[in-house]
Specification:
heterodimer, A: alpha/beta, nine-stranded mixed β-sheet, five-stranded parallel β-sheet, 7 helices, 17 strands, elongated, B: alpha/beta, two-stranded antiparallel ribbon, 13 strands, 30% strand, globular
Chain lengths: 334, 257
């Protein structure tokens, strides 16, 4: 058995998250430059159906770990199941790819430390050459600087989490025989971490870190009830609603929608900042967005210094106009 | 209840980040430093746990060059009882990856008896979010990361933490001793009171020097500033007109809608 790349997918409620195909896509690209094969791990409960759709991506082996104890993420159980399987193999994986989601960012470091490997988080680009040392690009220093990091020899257990919505999905490949293996799961005898409860939030739309478009509201929104228009706009754009720190601290928006230095770093195709002045702390979280639009009453707001398009005006006038136009357009398309 | 909080400094937001083409890839001479905001949540939580339980000891451990002393003094002034400074020279600190830092921390604390280790969920400079979790693994302890609430049942030797995941909250229970990494929302770090500032210098402040720098598995091989964004088009005047023009630009020029 040769060294290979190991992709650890993520599923929620029995469905594979989109980012899983992005991870496999990246494994495909790394495979082209190194000749390494790639295998895919799926963990969860009642996930038999998830292996089928993955059979056409040139994967060496799909490893399914299906057990009640894996239904929801548990740091101890997931790490143990993966580590046991990895340890049992002849060759150590050259690289382990995980999504930069709550699960991946939790599991990645644990696995890296278990095997004394390298760990790079939230990568936006990967390269691997004949030396099999993984080179990754990632945003640092408030999102305004790109760091390139590289694994030190030996080329094994290089663990990376990849930013969702950043890498191209896997391409279908014919002519490759993909094995499917059931991994035996044992409930650990000394379980020291227990998930007591998951409280699902009312469907608020997708997570901002996974959205291609984000409409963000700040102090200028004046209150929580006014976010309805941002939600409508985000819906029309197929995106999510973000918030500045001021809005989150005021209790108007949930903490996980905060964009900024102590919130999330996002890089969507389109970022629309409504009533956000543009403090350095906020910019740190969204500077890598492909297109930044600012809507603010204050012509001197710092956000206009970095926005690609800005409109000086009352967001409560501008946003409804945008909604009207986009709604008309989508009606016309039908 | 013995608590350990791990902290380090990061460049302030005002610091100009100047990449260089060769190691150490950055001109650090112009940097000013602050305590990593997420580590401040960890220190504050340590103090609050002591206050809630009416007892216990909080040790703050820092890895870094000499500037870290100021941060440690501040933590002592806030209410920590002891400080431990693992001295790493400026030029060596660039060579550490998260596993190396976790290893240094593990070596410094593994012989201390503790119930809880608190770390920041990530550092604002490298945003790796790994040290606390790797430390837990090296210590063979359970962890919960990016927590926004922590309740401790000292008698039962358990702690319950809340953490945010995509679209949901998780309530996770860990047996103690355990490691928690702290996220914004957990608490509001206090300003050290004046009596605290005066007491800080009398508290135990242990300086560990001559630590061997553990070999890193990851190296920095380049830094580049993202092309700085320049101000783009700013539309003013009649709002309906300006909005129409904005939509046209977004559709025709930026092609994002």
């Amino acid at each position: 058995m040769a060294q290979e790349i190991l992709v650890i997918t993520e599923q929620r409620g029995g469905e594979l998250k989109n980012v899983s195909l992005e991870l496999i896509g990246e494994a495909q690209r790394l495979s082209e430059t190194t000749g390494l094969g790639y295998s895919v791990f799926v963990l969860g409960h009642e996930i038999e159906g998830l292996a089928g759709p993955l059979l056409n991506y040139g994967v060496e082996e799909i490893l399914t770990a299906d057990s009640e104890v894996l239904r929801d993420y548990n740091s101890q159980v997931y790490a143990d199941v993966l580590a046991n399987e990895i340890s049992g193999r002849e060759e150590k994986p050259a690289a382990i790819l995980l999504p930069a989601t709550a699960m991946g960012k939790d599991l990645g470091p644990r696995l890296a430390a278990r095997f004394g490997g390298a760990y790079a988080a939230d990568c936006i680009g990967l390269k691997m050459g004949a030396d099999l040392l993984l080179e990754a690009r990632r945003l640092v220093y408030g999102g305004s600087v790109v760091a390139t990091v590289k694994g030190n020899p030996p080329p094994e257990f290089q663990v990376v989490t990849l930013r969702p919505n950043t890498f191209e999905r896997a391409k279908e490949v014919t002519g490759k025989e993909t094995g499917v293996t059931s991994v035996r799961v044992e409930t650990p005898s000394d379980l020291r971490v227990v998930l007591k409860e998951i409280v699902y939030e009312e469907a608020r739309g997708m997570d901002i870190a996974e959205a291609r478009a984000i409409v963000s509201g700040g102090r200028g929104m004046k209150g929580p009830e006014n976010y309805a228009i941002l939600e409508e706009l985000a819906g029309l754009l197929g995106g999510a609603v973000g918030a500045s720190r001021a809005a989150v601290d005021a209790g108007w928006r949930p903490a996980d929608s905060q964009v900024g230095l102590t919130g999330k770093t996002v890089a969507p195709e389109l970022y629309i900042a409504c009533g956000i002045s543009g403090s350095p702390q906020h910019l740190a979280g969204m500077m890598s967005s492909r297109c930044i639009v600012a809507i603010n009453k204050d012509p001197d707001a710092p956000i206009f210094k970095v926005s690609d398009y800005g409109i000086v005006g009352d967001l409560f006038e501008v946003v409804p106009l945008i909604i009207k136009d986009l709604s008309l357009q989508s009606k016309e398309k039908k | 209840m013995n608590i350990i909080a791990c902290a380090r400094q990061v460049p302030t937001l005002e610091s100009a980040i100047k990449p260089l083409p060769s190691p150490p890839f950055m001109d650090r001479s112009a940097l000013t430093y602050m305590a990593n905001p997420f580590d401040e949540f960890a220190v504050e939580e340590g103090i609050r746990i002591k206050e809630r339980l009416g007892g216990g000891e909080l040790t703050v451990v820092a890895v870094g060059p000499e500037g870290a002393d100021q941060m440690l003094l501040n933590a002592l002034a806030m209410g920590a009882d002891r400080a431990v400074h693992i001295n790493v020279k400026e030029e060596d600190s660039c060579l550490l990856d998260t596993l190396a830092v976790a290893t240094l921390l593990k070596n410094a604390i593994e012989d201390i008896e503790f119930d809880i280790v608190l770390c920041g969920k990530e550092a604002t400079d490298d945003r790796q979010g790994a040290v606390g979790i790797e430390l837990a693994e090296l210590l063979g302890l359970p962890h919960a990361a990016a927590i926004t609430k922590l309740d401790i049942d000292f008698e039962a030797k358990k702690a319950t933490a809340r953490r945010q995941v995509e679209g949901a909250w998780e309530i996770v229970e860990c047996q103690l001793p355990a490691v928690f990494t702290c996220h914004k929302g957990l608490n509001d770090p206090r300003y050290p009171p004046l009596p605290g500032i005066m007491k800080a210098r009398t508290k135990p402040h242990n300086n560990i020097t001559d630590v061997g720098v553990p070999a890193a598995r990851l190296s920095l091989t380049g830094l580049e500033n993202l092309p700085s964004r320049k101000a783009g088009k700013k539309l003013e005047g009649d709002v309906p007109e300006a909005t129409k023009e904005l939509l046209r630009l977004l559709h025709d020029e930026a092609r994002v809608i």
